[in-house]
Request: fold
Amino acid sequence: MGAARKSGKKIGKVLMPGEIEGVDRSVGVDARCVRLMAKAETPASLAPDIERRGLSRGENQVLIEVRAAAVNPSDVKAATGLMAYAVFPRTPGRDYAGIVVDGPPATLGREVFGSSGDLGIRRDGTHATHLVVEADAIVEKPKDISFEEAAGIGVPFVTAIEGFRRAGTPKSGDTVLIMGINGKVGQAAVQIATWVGARVIGVARRSEPYVGHSNSAVEMIDSSTTDVATRVRELTTGKGADIVFNTVGDPYFLAAHHSLALRGRQILIAAINPVVPFNILEFYRGQHSYVGIDTLGLSSSATGAVLGELGPGFASGHLKPFPIRPNAIFSLEEAKTAFLAVAGSARDRVILRPS
Reply:
């Protein structure tokens, strides 16, 4: 496996500062990276460069030849200044899949995937031919899925499972209401909830079926024509939802609140307008809990631990990666086009293929 395939040669081994000849030497590679020099005012004004940069791993790290990397909405937000803590210049990208070309002996040659809250935001990320991450951050790629599919798992599934971990994993017989169900986080939440035997009710802003994978039937509510909370009470004989996974935020906040069962939990991951009306009396009399999830706070290692929990689900077929369509795969040189597709709310998972 050529670690420096794009340069046409292998760079050979180089010593890291403080290393001794013959002791734990790392492989240096000439990596090609998407580079953002400064924030852009709008997605249309993005001007990514392609740079060559020397990369080599440090102690307890691995060097990965990236075969595929996803473009997430958070990548676009960071690039356009909506995340004040994003560091420039930088290489964007949070999700990846590839092959370990240098690292501890047990990791060499492994096909892996992963994600992170800091990659591509506070440190150089995955939109490159090579990537350096902590050795405990990588997760074995399921054998039956492609690199492109594995690269698309990261942020949506991490967000979904972290929400359920924090709110309490649903149990068989629980009702989970998912708002914005046909978004990628919504679809991941459906897969996880139905994997553990929960009943899922989905909310969309128009009349449409659920479009993703599920392990059981999903009941849909069209919020443009139906009062969501009233319909949820009808479907649950008055009880309401044990968990509401609100992937949209404030537009659905009150509907989610009024749909909660006694001791119900609402998971929140996004906001358009950050301030909402809040009825404290209904909140404490309903014994409700609200859980906020921000995966940008998870390190590569912490994210790897979350993704590792999903392995049995992908192995059994209860969890499936998102379909990757050929017209949603771009080269590094087409990074701006990929970013614009995500900014335009493309429903497809958008992937960069570095090689």
